[in-house]
Amino acid sequence: MFDRGRRTPVKGSSTRFKERQRTITRTFRIREQWDDVLHEEAERQGVSVNVLVNKILRRYTLFTRWADKGGVMSFTQLIFRRILEELSDESLARAGTASGHSDMLDIINMLGQPVNYDSFVYLLSEYLGGSDFCRWFTCFHHIQRDEDVFHLQHTLGRGWSIYLENYLLSSLRPLIKGDAESKIYDFAVNLKVASSHTKR
User: Fold this and answer.
1) Alpha helices (H) along 28-125
2) How far apart are CA 53 and CA 110, in angstroms?
3) Does the residue 3 lie in any domain?
């Protein structure tokens, strides 16, 4: 999360993990077959086992422990896309609008974040749109003059774009002073929020 004027991290529970750079040494025992998997995967990714384990621990700390408590389910993209294809555009729009604000508020509270626009930015760029967590989309966040621009790419088709647009606009309404500008594509949603509309 960044303060637009200062371009420095805003204090909050989401950034405390980024700000802490100190490390500790901890010794623990794991099963031999798990160690074999770690070595194989680290070699495949071209990283050390230490880097891989820290990546796994980061995902658990910032996502998995909350996802388990929140009852998150996993589907393949193929299954989810087939479900979306059976629903009408109107029903997807209604579902997005109905669930957006309450769902986003629940996630923010679950993570211990303040209910404000900065938390929305964090959820879009890291929690929902980061490569390590929910993977609803890939989030490209740009600051262009006096507005935030979010380009959200996915592979799930126009129905998912319709749902996302309504979900995000519904989530934003209590957090900004005016309206956000949005546009949908078959495999992306573009969202623009003027800096004069944000509440921090």
Assistant:
1) 32-45, 49-59, 65-69, 77-85, 89-110, 117-122
2) 25
3) no
What's the rounded mean pLDDT across residues 135-163? Answer: 94
First to last CA, the chain: 11
pLDDT for 23 beyond 90: no
pLDDT (0 to 100) of residue 199 = 64
Residues spanned by the domain of 157: 77-197
Specify the higher pLDDT residue, 163 or 6: 163
Alpha-carbon span 102 to 34, nearest angstrom = 39
Residue 127 included in any domain: yes
Query: Same domain, yes or no, for 97 and 179?
Result: yes
* Position 20 confidence tier, pLDDT thresholds 50, 70, 90: low
| Same domain membership, residue 63 and residue 82 | no
* Angle made by CA atoms 197, 116, 161, in degrees to the nearest 5: 75
- At 129, the amino acid letter reads G
- Give the best-scoring range by mean pLDDT among 68-72, 145-149, 166-170: 166-170
Q: What is the mean pLDDT of the chain?
A: 85
Domain count for the chain = 2
* Pairwise CA distance, residues 186 & 109, whole Å: 32
List for the chain the helix, strand, coil content (%; round to 5). Answer: 50, 15, 35
Q: How many residues in the chain?
A: 200
